[in-house]
Amino acid sequence: MTHPGGPGDDDAAGPCDGPEAVAREIADAVESLTSLWSLAAQGAAVRLSLHQLRALRAVETAPDLNLTALAERLEVGLPTASRLCDRLEAAGLLERALHPHSRREVRLTVTAQGRHVLDDVAARRSQALAVALAAMEPAELMLLSKGMRAFLAGQDPVRRSGSWRGSPPV
Q1: Per the domain annotation, does 58 fall within a domain?
Q2: Which of 21, 44, 78, 103 fits as disulfide partner to 13, beta carbons 3.0 to 4.6 Å?
Q3: If residue 6 lies in a helix (H) or strand (E), which one and from where to where?
Q4: What is the pLDDT of residues 39-64, one digit of tens each?
C-alpha cells in the first residue's frame, strides 16, 4: 500500500489535495482491485495466469492480431508472446492461422472456448466488484462513477501521446 490512510481516515487525501495525494489513493485502490481481479479470475473453470488472460483479451479486442503486434501491445518480447500463444493454443483457447495475403505472417484468433473463458472471468470479476460496490452509499457510488468518467477522459490525451511510456508516474 502506498498510503496508510483508508476509508474514514481523517488524514486521507481529500478533493482539495494535490494530484500526488490523490494518485496515492488511486494506487491503493488499483492494488486492491488487482487483487480482487486476480482472485475472481482464479475461480474460473479454466485457470489462466494474468499474462495469459491479458494476451487472450488483447487478441479478442483486436481480431486478426499477429504475433509481433501482440508482443508490442503486451510490451513483452517476441519469444515471450510466442510462448504465451503456445500455451493458449494448447489449451484450445487461441488459434494461429497463416495470413491469406502474407504467408510469413500468422494471424491470432480467440476460439469459441477462449471466448467462453473470457466471458466467465469477466462475469466473475463484475460480480466481485458489485459486491464491493454494494457496501458504498448511493452518493459515494455516484461520485465514484463521475470521477472515473473524468479520469478516463483525462487519460485519453496521455494514452494517445504515449507520454507515460518509459517513465510512468509513481
Answers
A1: yes
A2: 21
A3: none
A4: 877 877 788 888 899 999 999 999 77
